[in-house]
Design brief:
Mean pLDDT: 78
Order of helices and strands: HHH
Shape: flat
Number of helices: 3
Distance between the termini: 58 Å
Largest sheet: none
């Protein structure tokens, strides 16, 4: 057992690190539609259900932070590929969102 209750044997650790590195590298160059925090607009009202979800998220993270945060990061890492597969299954092209430029560059 390594640390933070993760049952990974010492012999497997280099291979686990290799797999995570390979996944991260391939995800950086893929067109998987991961959610970006840049699209968050805090100027408008938020539904009550979303506020309850944020509160539950805080409670879950505060109960066991290392395991809960690791689970959240794994869920985020898988979410882009699940959305990509969902779009492919239903025949929709994967949408690539453009971030609005806030600058006044008029060239």
């Amino acid at each position: 057992m390594i640390d933070n209750k993760l049952p990974v044997k010492d012999l497997w650790m280099p291979w686990v690190a290799f797999g995570i590195t390979l996944y991260a590298g391939l995800s950086m160059v893929s067109n998987a539609p991961f959610y970006s925090g840049k699209a968050l607009d805090v100027r408008y009202r938020v539904p009550f259900g979303m506020m309850v979800l944020v509160l539950v998220l805080f409670v879950v993270v505060s109960t066991d932070p290392p395991v809960a945060l690791f689970g959240l990061f794994v869920a985020y890492a898988i979410s882009g590929y699940l959305l990509w597969g969902w779009h492919a299954l239903h025949g929709k092209p994967a949408e690539i969102r453009k971030v609005r430029d806030g600058g006044n560059d008029r060239s």
